[in-house]
Design a protein that fits this description.
Helix content: 40-55%
Number of helices: 10
Number of strands: 11
Shape: elongated
Structural class: alpha+beta
Strand content: 15-25%
Number of domains: 3
Distance between the termini: 98 Å
Length: 371
């Protein structure tokens, strides 16, 4: 005898079965309708990514093997490298990065010349002048800044302990960096062209030589290179150019102007919810692809327009912005003749006046990126 409860369970099972059948039929219909489109999307979207992943895996293995081999070779040659070479290529970008409110970790650099007796010399830069003079107590922590001349060039220095400047207080470090840049600005006002050195470049005395003698010895060894760098930046300054765009505005333009994107969007309106979702993915992929293409095209265009007004360009890494709707497309350091920066400013103003793009033009800075 079948109970009332059993009958109710049987009816529920039948209802579930009917619903499941409807769902299956709907999915099968959607699949048949979108079969060709799904195949095209898989080929266009998944296959390239899979191939890329395979190539990347192979590349990593090759790089790993190459690195191990290269490391052994470098280790064998390292013994013969001259000590002074450490200081021959100073890398100094602290002042410009500070102005962009992004102080990076400071690595102390020293030019080892021997023992550690007496005081060292903190080196700000090399001036294009043969001058032995005092610039006043304008150095880090109020130190007296003066120059040491050598064959038409002058080192801008202050006496300092042999230990690098260190602090866990970020504000203290920022103050030091600002003072470092201020000394370079004063030196440029007094002497004209100055090769800037990075924060915390310290010259140590030798066993039988003072820090000043060690300084002159280094200048003698690097004299030709210093003269070449001086000639390269004489009468020029470094400027920063950053160009941003608004992705949402660019996407709207692509939807309006790109025929393929417009077609996908129109077709999506007539599709069932399941197929429409696939079309949405396809639409987003098409917009992203077109966006990348446009950004590459704009980068080349802007780069070419900027290059006409500058002596040299260094392409820097793009950075995240504080504004949600903005992304950086270009980050350049430009070496510009003193009488050309207004021309570049006018060119950048044209770019800045467009709806999509905005420009940040900073400087002048000491030519850190080009020495």
């Amino acid at each position: 005898m079948v109970t009332k409860k059993a009958k109710e369970m049987s009816e529920k099972d039948k209802l579930r079965g009917i619903i499941a059948k409807i769902v299956r039929e709907e999915i099968e219909a959607m699949t048949r309708e979108a079969k060709g489109e799904i195949r095209a999307i898989v080929r266009a979207e998944l296959f390239p990514g899979l191939r890329s992943a395979v190539r990347e895996s192979i590349t990593k293995e090759l790089e790993s093997a190459t690195f191990e081999y290269g490391y052994k070779v470098e280790s064998e040659e390292e013994i013969s490298a001259p000590v002074e070479e450490v200081a021959s290529q100073p890398q100094a970008v602290m002042a410009k990065e500070e102005a962009e409110s992004e102080i990076e970790p400071i690595m102390a650099r020293e030019m080892e010349v021997g023992g550690e007796q007496g005081l060292g010399l903190y080196l700000y830069g090399i001036a294009d002048a043969n001058a032995q003079t005092e610039l006043g107590e304008i150095g880090i922590e109020g130190t007296e800044v003066y120059t040491i001349p050598y064959k038409g060039l002058s080192a801008i220095v202050h006496n300092c302990p042999l230990e690098p400047y260190k602090s866990d207080d970020e504000e203290v470090v920022k103050g030091w960096v600002k003072t470092h840049q201020h000394v370079l600005d004063v030196a440029e006002d007094n002497f004209g062209t100055v090769i800037p050195f990075s924060f915390d470049m310290i010259i140590k005395p030798g066993d039988n030589a003072t820090a000043e003698e060690a300084m002159k010895k280094w200048m003698s060894e690097e004299f030709d290179g210093l003269r070449e760098k001086m000639a390269k930046i004489r009468g020029k300054k470094e400027y920063g150019v950053q160009i941003f765009y608004v992705p949402s505005v660019m996407s709207e333009r692509i939807v309006e102007e790109n025929e393929e994107v417009r077609k996908i969007k129109e077709e999506m309106k007539s599709k069932s919810p399941g197929v429409a979702y696939i079309y949405k993915q396809k639409l987003e992929s098409a917009i992203k692809k077109e966006m990348e293409s446009k950004m590459n095209s704009h980068f080349k265009d802007f780069y070419g327009r900027i290059k006409e007004h500058v002596e040299e360009i260094s392409v820097e890494k793009t950075k995240k912005t504080d504004e949600k709707d903005m992304q950086m497309i270009m980050n350049l350091s430009c070496l510009i003749a003193d009488d050309k920066y207004k021309e570049l400013g006018a060119e950048l103003e044209q770019i800045d006046n467009t709806e999509v793009f905005s420009v940040r033009f900073t400087g002048p800075w000491a030519a850190y990126s080009f020495v």
